[in-house]
Amino acid sequence: MMKKRLFKDKVLNGLTFFTSGISVLVLFAIFFFIFQKGYSTLSLDMLSNNYWSVNYNLAIPESSQSVYTYPSIESGESFSSKYGIAFKDDFSPDKKALIVVSYVDPASPFKLLTDLSAGPNQGQVIPIQLGMNIEKIVYTNTLGVDRSAGVIFKQNASELVNILDTQATKLLSTYTQTEGGGIKGSLIATLYLILISLAIAMPLGIFSAIYLTEYAAKNKTSAFIRSSIELLTGVPSIIYGLMGMVVLYPITTLFKVSGPSVLLGGLTLSIILLPTIIRTTEEALKVVPEHFRSASLSLGANYSQTIFKVVLPSAVPGILTGILLSVGRVIGESAALIYTMGTFVNDSPSVTRGGTSLAVQIWSIMSGEQPNFALASAISIIILGIVLFINISIKLLARRFAKTW
Amino acid sequence: MKNIFEIKHLTLHYGNLLALKDVNLTIKEHSVTAFIGPSGCGKSTLLRCLNRMNDLIPECKIEGQIIIDEQDIQNDKISVVDLRTKVGMVFQKPNPFPMSIYENVAYGLRCQGIKDKKALDEAVETSLKKAALWNEVQDRLKENAYKLSGGQQQRLCIARAIAMEPEVILMDEPTSALDPIATAKIEELINDLKKEYTIIIVTHSMQQAARISDDTAFFLLGEVIEFNPTKQLFHVPQDKRTEDYITGRFG
């Protein structure tokens, strides 16, 4: 009998240990997986680059100098002394070979490229930028025949330079592409989203929390308001997205905005944030000691002065926690934004136009014809990093403002 | 001496609980009046009536009159804010606001709408001097009040009340959270302050009441058993219950 019980205890204890171990394991698995897939793509360039690459067909003028020198050639770089430009081999996130411009002499003809494609920009000077990919270069060879060289002929950087320096007598045109796969647009759009949603949700949330804790009588009406707010927390965000599209869209049209926009996304998010901000502010106000209120009132302050000069400032750390939590929510939100902001990755987003937040860019990348898993994982690392930073800030904030009274 | 407060037939209920029963007291100007009695006898409740701090308690019902400057303070014509600038209060636990020393003292004046920097500076300085705190804090006025010691915090709270230039200062066991040295300083301060203000103090310590007060009221179960000059009350108590209490037979 005794032995049986001991065995049963051990099984139960083991079970609790095992199950709590699972969650830790899952957490680490997520981190490991994301880092393994995304780490090689993660770079500072990614933060500042556009997502969409732009193609150019550009004419190359006559070279003004016959010999160029490169101050210091790095390993892996090939320098064309005849044209003053250096190339490097590289790979795109989807593992295609690239020839990337790594150095341009200020006097190089590549600084004076002009647009060949028909249109309003024809003839405009478009100097080559570091990081651009050279698809092909058209040249006239020693026999007077026009030929092409470049990555589309499976040549690498040193082979291209060799052709330029030995076979080409004249360069005619080049087909180049700017580097893509960046998240600059989504970063900016996410920032706009945070600003817009907080600008609306913060005053609304803080003032309603003040009403609920300080002014509202404890009756059925205030209980109803409070439970309605709690209910808001449980509404799935996709429903907020639908609501935003239907109910808030007319508001954005007042600002002459049509279609999905960052503004509409921000408005929708501000409603999602409201319950969080109200709840955390309420909690923060409740823990302000009663004796601050009595002291203030005994000094002849009226009730509003007491609330806004003493109680609210004392609650600031708690309120800040709520705001940080909200920022985390904005960064992680995706479902509600798909309807309201669209899924098209916009490299130069503005408040009145559509765009994607970081989270939606992941969705957008992965739902295309060629899912770019590496970039999606890299964005995930960034999101996880920001969320981790916010969580640590909240912990530090709580410790920094540990109650002195 | 002039009477500042006249309390007539004051009865107070918290819901169904009778907290004060037919209290009649007159409080003299520029004197220290002590309220003593065992816990729960109603002495703090009466003190809180004097500047209407009981307004915050929803179930509290008051009958009778409290007259200051020939007006009943329960009267709706008197504004609570005016009353509280006239009747200041110092609490049991030092409770400065989590702001600088300067802002703590200037708080009440700012709430009255005084913005003039010079007037505020002056008021802060005189109040801190009257509260015997100026010498200790004059070069750290911008520091957070919570950096002060407990005794200094309590004197800051007194300075904060003085800044409003009240007629009466109510003190609800102001030294119960302090050590003996800080207590002695506060008692000394009370002795100085009574030249300008009327002080009503609730205390648990009979020795304190005997040391600092001019008149003493002894409370028991919501009733004033005896109200007499302090010397008389402690040496020749009129009531058997008073004698029992001050000789330590209960309480």
Report on the structure:
The complex is a heterodimer of chains A (405) and B (251). Chain A is an alpha+beta fold and 405 residues long. Chain A folds into two domains: 53-177, no CATH class; 184-400, MetI-like fold (Orthogonal Bundle). Chain A is built from 13 helices and eight strands. Chain A has a five-stranded antiparallel sheet. The mean pLDDT of chain A is 88. With 251 residues, chain B is α/β, with parallel strands linked by helices. In chain B, helix 3 crosses helix 4 (117-130), helix 3 (101-111) runs parallel beside helix 6 and helix 4 (117-130) packs across helix 6. The two termini of chain B are 33 Å apart. The interface between A and B is medium-sized, with 20 and 27 residues.
The count of strands of chain B amounts to 10
Can you tell me the CATH architecture of the largest domain in chain A?
Answer: Orthogonal Bundle
Query: What do we call the CATH topology of the largest domain in chain A?
Result: MetI-like fold
Decide which structural class fits the backbone of chain A: alpha+beta
Which strand order do you get reading across the main beta sheet of chain A? 5-1-8-6-7
β-strand percent of chain B reads 25-35%
Order of helices and strands of chain A: HHEEEEEEEHEHHHHHHHHHH
CATH class call of the domain at 3-94 and 166-246 in chain B: Alpha Beta
| The CATH class of the largest domain in chain A | Mainly Alpha
Low-confidence stretches of chain A: none
Number of helices of chain A: 13
Give the full name of the CATH homologous superfamily of the domain at 3-94 and 166-246 in chain B. Answer: P-loop containing nucleotide triphosphate hydrolases
Largest interface: A-B, 20 and 27 residues
Using the 3D structure, state the CATH architecture of the domain at 3-94 and 166-246 in chain B. Answer: 3-Layer(aba) Sandwich
According to CATH, the fold-level topology of the domain at 3-94 and 166-246 in chain B is Rossmann fold
Number of strands of chain A: 8
* Class based on secondary structure composition and strand pairing of chain B: alpha/beta
Tell the overall outline of chain A.
Answer: elongated
Largest sheet of chain B: 6 strands, mixed
